[in-house]
Amino acid sequence: MKSINIFCFGFGQIAKNFLKKLIIEKYNITLTATSRNKSSKKNFNGVNYNSYLFNSNKFDNNLLVELKEADHILVSIPPEKKEDLVVKNFSKSIEDSKVKWITYLSATSVYGDHKGEWVNENSETKPTSFNGISRLNAENSWLSLQMNKNLPVQIFRLSGIYSNEKNILVRLKSGTAKLIIKNDHYFSRIHVEDIANILFKSLSKFKSGEIYNLADDKPSSLEEITLHGAKLLNIKNLEKIEINNLESEMLKNFYKDSKKVSNTKTKKYFSYNFKFPTYIEGLNYIRDNFI
Description:
Layout: E1 3-9, H1 13-24, E2 28-35, E3 40-44, E4 47-53, H2 63-69, E5 72-75, H3 85-95, E6 101-107, E7 118-119, H4 130-149, E8 153-158, E9 160-162, H5 168-174, E10 179-181, E11 189-191, H6 192-204, E12 211-214, H7 222-233, E13 240-242, H8 249-254, E14 260-261, H9 264-269, H10 279-289
Parallel strand pairs: 1-2, 1-5, 2-4, 5-6, 6-8, 7-14, 8-12, 9-11, 10-13
Antiparallel strand pairs: 3-4
Helix pairs in contact: 1-6, 5-7, 7-10
């Protein structure tokens, strides 16, 4: 049985789906995680672990002992004030640890607006949003550690994440989804299970200093996805909103960037075939099994 001692900065849906994959693959797991809540002992799908307090103001010093023993570190917490909190607080501890695999989960917002054209890992990064700028700063912090301290770091740039629990079908059923009209607006997405599967693949095929896009095969408009979801649920007469009438600042920022994210490098390097190659397979699966 293979063993893994993994430290997760943040324990959200990606980390949990990755742990589920490790359990399925019958790994012997030593798990430590951080949370914004007070430190406690927890259990996830039969795996007992310590969850330590860590936020922008303070952290539980007890986590340092387990961090130094970790051989794998997954970083899924967002930057704050344009800097990566893990690098800021723990770079020296990580340098002194037994780690052989560090994965920083970034976002494709680092590319900014490419007017609907394709981007790959060599494309210009010109983020327009605060989140995109912060993510790029965090990436550079990790890559600096990789180069200057010879730490084993890879970066995954994630597209819009959906899951069996959080998706357009759930929003359509609850009545919160709107049909927003904007021509020639493209973005990419990925099902959380595919992220977990690629993370797992990278355990045995790791190359330090590399960046990979995690996106499915079909960049599309949100309008197209919403209409497909409505068709699956037989919902008609969706409320239409013109882009200029949006009130949500988050949505306004979302529509500033238009790009198609290439996954060619990821599929080739990890020899990976997506479980959900497009939103069509993903939403059909969710409708048939969870809705």
